[in-house]
Amino acid sequence: MRPIAIIAGKELRDGFRNRWVVATTALLAALALTLAFLGSAPTGSVKVSALGVTIVSLSSLTIFLVPLIALLLSYDAIVGEAERGTLALLLAYPVARWQVVLGKFAGHLAVLGCATAIGYGVVGGAVQWTGGDDGGAWAAFVMMIVTSILLGGVFVAIGYLVSALVGDRGAAGGVAIGVWLVFVLIYDMALLGALVADQGRTISAGALNVLLLLNPTDVYRLINLTSSPNVSALAGVAGLGASAGFSPTLLVAVLAAWILAPLVAATAAFARRSA
Questions:
Q1: Which of 97, 112, 114, 239 is the Cys-Cys partner for 152 at CB 3.0 to 4.6 Å?
Q2: What is the pLDDT of residues 189-216, one digit of tens each?
Q3: Domain ranges of the chain
Q4: What tens digit of pLDDT does each residue of 145-168 get?
């Protein structure tokens, strides 16, 4: 465990030194504050929870922004060090390749976790300070922060898989952007188009549920927009949560599996890669 902790600490220090943590925290906080106060402006007149509206807004922001940040953090974690020649030096030490992957993953996840927790925590504090406190929505808000970090972990792991398979940084960057486009934009558009074209003839409700689990951003959306009654009503997807029948525990487990699978694949690919 000590080599993993050392490598994770190095990645975390590099994140602070390169201003990744500061820049990401500032970006998330600025965008989240803007969405929170613009989105909750009419809540006083319509008598809905300001924090619930904030969760809906921040969940949409997270789906677009956190995966992109995670991929930018991780896409050159292996191929970049190989091109710079530092990977061969690292592997000259008594450290296993799986320890390198896990150490880098822990460090990058800590960078992303710090930025997300601080950036979104500022928003939660601001909503409470302005009188938008809602005890029923705070549990959902904490769940949103935790699952946002998990979603970032999914794409950090996918970034490592890309970095272990691709031969140069430029190609890795292109593949990473392609991965982001597929999971965040193209998948749901294609699924919606298929549902419209099918008209319920072939794709059953059970098949749709399985298809939703095949995209980590949809799993994240199901957790945060359907699990809490206070939030699902505001998001307009209360019926979806009831028809899917997924428990929050199951959805979090699926999100954790989405982290584990590409991380194991990245470790296997890195084991076969020459330094």
A1: 112
A2: 998 888 888 777 787 777 888 888 899 9
A3: 2-272
A4: 999 999 999 999 999 999 999 988
